[in-house]
């Protein structure tokens, strides 16, 4: 048990929120517009149907790193207070008007210690998306995201969806479903992923998105604990940090 708590403190839980690069398809760089039209043909459900070029952009571009952007990143980690037998979960959201500044600040945190990164569906979405946007923005990949040339067991990435698969590669499980089966409060009361682009571009409500992002980080962390029966029953104190990186100076 002591080893579990020791290792738990090395895990950085994270969640990214993304949006389309621009509000309108016409605002995209000309070369990117041409590339999106080609991708759009593969995305449409009816390959023989006729759609207006760019019509899928607003709803679909945000999930593709080449046509999207990271608008905020929520992170959190546990601290074990042995004397009080209590877990403290410290979380923070990174958000900047300039995506590059956001990624630089996140990169600085990721290099502060030998983190194990954990996200829901992180291996297929969050981690590769972060890597792609960092390279596009000219930000060197921090060590935890450098996977080229590494053996599988050398990559310090955890994925709560992969853990739940138990080897079943065809099985996809939403974070909300896992939260439901484990009795964990939802993060979808006010917002869900399909609404982020509208909330960002049209409603200009970053505070709402940041709150949703932090809730997803907390839910992911609680799901991870729930996969270790007995641990999730402990009291957890939630602390939202104004500046998480100061914790590791």
Automatic annotation (TrEMBL):
What are the entry keywords? Answer: Exonuclease, Hydrolase, Nuclease
Ranges for domain Predicted 3'-5' exonuclease PolB-like come to 95-229
Q: Name one Pfam family in it.
A: DNA_pol_B_exo2
Where does the UniProt annotation place the signal sequence? none
Which InterPro entries has this protein been placed in?
3'-5'_exonuclease_PolB-like, RNaseH-like_sf, RNaseH_sf
- Where are the membrane-spanning stretches? none
Superkingdom of this entry's organism?
Bacteria
- A GO molecular-function descriptor: exonuclease activity
Against Gene3D superfamilies, the record matches this protein to: Ribonuclease H-like superfamily/Ribonuclease H
* KW Cell membrane (keyword) present: no
> What is the protein name stated in its UniProt record?
3'-5' exonuclease
Q: Which organism is it from?
A: Algoriphagus limi
């Amino acid at each position: 048990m002591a080893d579990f708590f020791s290792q738990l403190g090395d895990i950085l839980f994270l969640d990214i929120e993304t949006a389309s690069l621009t509000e309108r398809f016409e605002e995209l760089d000309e070369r990117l517009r041409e590339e999106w039209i080609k991708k759009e043909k593969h995305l449409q459900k009816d390959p023989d149907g006729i759609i207006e070029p760019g019509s899928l952009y607003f709803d679909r571009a945000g999930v593709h790193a080449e046509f999207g952007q990271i608008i905020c990143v929520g992170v959190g980690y546990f601290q074990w207070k042995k004397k009080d037998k209590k877990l403290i979960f410290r979380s923070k959201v990174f958000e900047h008007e300039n995506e590059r500044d956001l990624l630089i600040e996140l990169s600085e945190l990721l290099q502060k210690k030998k983190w194990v990164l954990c996200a829901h569906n992180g291996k297929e979405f969050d981690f590769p998306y972060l890597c792609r946007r960092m390279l596009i923005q000219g930000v060197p990949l921090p060590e935890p995201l450098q996977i080229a040339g590494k053996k599988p067991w050398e990559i310090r990435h955890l994925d709560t969806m992969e853990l739940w698969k138990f080897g079943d590669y065809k099985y996809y499980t939403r974070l909300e479903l896992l939260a439901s089966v484990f009795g964990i409060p939802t993060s979808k009361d006010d917002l869900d992923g399909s609404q982020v682009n509208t909330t960002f571009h049209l409603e200009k409500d970053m505070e709402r998105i940041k709150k949703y992002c932090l809730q997803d980080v907390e839910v992911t962390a609680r799901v991870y604990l729930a996969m270790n029966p007995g641990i999730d029953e402990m009291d957890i104190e939630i602390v939202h940090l104004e500046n998480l990186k100061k914790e590791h100076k």
